[in-house]
Amino acid sequence: MAERFLELHGELFQARPLTGTRTERIDGIAAHRAEFYETVAPVRRSTLVRIHRSPELQQQQALLAAHLRKQLTRTFEHELSALDDDVAAEVLELLDLHTSWETWDRLRVWQKLPVDTSRKVVTGLIRQALRRR
């Protein structure tokens, strides 16, 4: 199932660093994650039912999480490198949390927010995290 999904939506899994102004990068990350999570939602939910019994699924999810985290690190390298190491680590943790599947799923499923509103909330959370000093 994962292989077929990659064939159809492989471009979404290419979490390249985004360029441009800070605002463009923030908006770009939020838009990418919104499109990505909306596209993978059915497969992701199916995976979550089985993940506790499957080391392979656990490994795939860990690799994807690391891939998406690396995108954040590279996209916001300028902002993170300007911070003390401890603060940069905290900001990266916040960025990772705010742009995670779990955050997106909560906004969409449990808070019942539409995609555009969820994307705006994530954008605001990213901005807040990057303001930390």
What would your notes on this structure say?
The chain is an all-alpha fold. It is 77% helix and 0% strand. The protein has 7 helices and no strands. It has helices at 2-9, 22-50, 55-75, 77-81, 85-98, 101-110, 115-130. α2 (22-50) packs across α7 and α6 (101-110) packs across α7 (115-130). The longest helix has 29 residues, at 22-50. It is globular, with a radius of gyration of 15 Å. The chain starts with a helix and ends with a helix.
Intertermini distance: 43 Å
Oligomerization status of the protein chains: single chain
How many strands, what sense, and barrel or not for the largest sheet?
Answer: none
Q: Give me the secondary-structure category.
A: mainly alpha
Unreliable segments (pLDDT under 50, ≥5 consecutive)? none
Rounded radius of gyration (Å): 15 Å
* Average pLDDT: 86
Q: Tell the overall outline.
A: globular
Proportion in helices:
over 70%
Strand/helix succession: HHHHHHH
Number of helices: 7
**In percent, how much strand structure appears in the residues?**
under 5%
